[in-house]
Design goal:
single chain; mainly beta; 6-stranded antiparallel beta sheet; dTDP-4-dehydrorhamnose 3,5-epimerase; 13 strands; 5-stranded antiparallel beta sheet; RmlC-like_jellyroll; Jelly Rolls; about 180 residues; binds dTDP-4-keto-6-deoxyglucose
C-alpha cells in the first residue's frame, strides 16, 4: 500500500494496487499491519456503503464530535467522486482549509480522513458508490455538519450542486468565532 500525504496533516491518500494475473485481479482493501504508522491502534468498527444516483449530488460534510470522533477510510467502488476533507482541528496550521481528491473505481485507492476533519463528496458520475471504513460507531447525537456552500470554507465544487439531503441543506454556517474542535 502506498501512502501519500496531503497538505492537511493526517489526510492521506492510500493506494492499494491490484495484483493482476490471467484469472483477473486481487487486492487488499485494508491492512492494520501495513497501515500501522497511519492508523496506530485504531480498529475498524463499522463499514458503510453509499450509492448516489445523480452526478453533481453532494453528501456531507459530516464529522462526529469527541469522544465519538472517527478516522474514515473512503474508497470509490463504482464511478467517480470528488472527495473533500476539511480541517476543523483547533490550533491546526491548516484550520478550515480543505483538500479534495478524485476517487474512482478504477484507481484503487482510499482517502483517509482523521478525527477532527469533516468529510463530504460530490458525485462526478451517476450511480457512484463509496465504501467507508470507520474507527468509531455512528452516533447521531455526536454528529456535526458543515454547509457545502459555507463562505468560510469556499469549497470549489467541480459541478453545480444537483442534489442534497434536507439535513445537509440545514447545517448551520460556521460562526465567526468558531475556534475548532478539540480532538
Ligand atoms: C452514517 C450512518 C447513517 N445511518 C443512517 C442515518 C440516515 O437515516 C441514513 C443516511 O445517513 P446520512 O444521511 O448521514 O448519510 P450520508 O449523508 O450519505 O452521509 C455519508 O456521507 C458523508 C459524506 C459521510 O462522511 C458520512 O460518514 C456518511 O454517513 O443512514 C445509519 O443507520 N448508520 C450509519 O452509520
Amino acid at each position: 500500500m502506498n501512502v501519500t500525504p496531503t497538505p492537511i496533516a493526517g489526510v492521506m491518500l492510500v493506494e492499494t494496487p491490484l495484483r493482476e494475473d490471467h484469472r483477473g485481479a486481487f487486492g487488499r482493501l485494508y491492512c492494520d499491519r501495513e497501515l500501522a504508522d497511519l492508523a496506530g491502534t485504531r480498529r475498524i468498527v463499522q463499514i458503510n456503503q453509499s450509492r448516489t444516483r445523480e452526478a453533481g449530488a453532494v453528501r456531507g460534510l459530516h464529522f462526529q464530535h469527541a469522544p465519538h470522533a472517527e478516522m474514515k477510510f473512503v474508497r470509490c467502488l463504482r464511478g467517480r467522486v470528488w472527495d473533500v476533507a476539511v480541517d476543523l482541528r483547533a490550533g491546526s496550521s491548516t484550520f478550515l482549509r480543505w483538500h479534495a481528491q478524485e476517487l474512482r473505481a478504477d484507481r484503487h485507492a482510499m482517502l483517509v480522513i482523521p478525527e477532527g476533519c469533516a468529510h463530504g463528496f460530490q458525485v462526478l458520475e451517476a450511480d457512484s458508490e463509496l465504501l467507508y471504513l470507520h474507527t468509531a460507531h455512528y452516533d447521531p447525537d455526536a454528529e456535526g455538519g458543515l454547509r457545502h456552500d459555507d463562505p468560510r470554507l469556499a469549497i470549489a465544487w467541480p459541478l453545480p450542486v444537483a442534489d442534497l439531503s434536507e439535513r445537509d441543506r440545514a447545517h448551520p454556517l460556521l460562526s465567526p468565532d468558531f475556534a475548532g474542535l478539540d480532538v
